[in-house]
Amino acid sequence: MTGVTGRVARDLREALGPLTKPLADAGFLVTGVHVVDEGTWGRLDATLEGSQTLGKLQIHLNKKGKLSIVPQGSGAPAIARALGLVASASPMSGSARSRPDTERATATVRAAPSTSRAKGNPGELVVDCSKFGQSLIGPTEWRGMLCEASGKWREVFHSPMFERGHNNLGEFLAIVDGCQRIERGEIVCTSLWSDSKTAISWLTKGQIKSKIDIHVSCDGAFAAAVAEALAWIELTDRSRWTTLLHWWQVGRRGENPADFGRK
Question: What is the pTM of this model?
Answer without folding.
Answer: 0.59
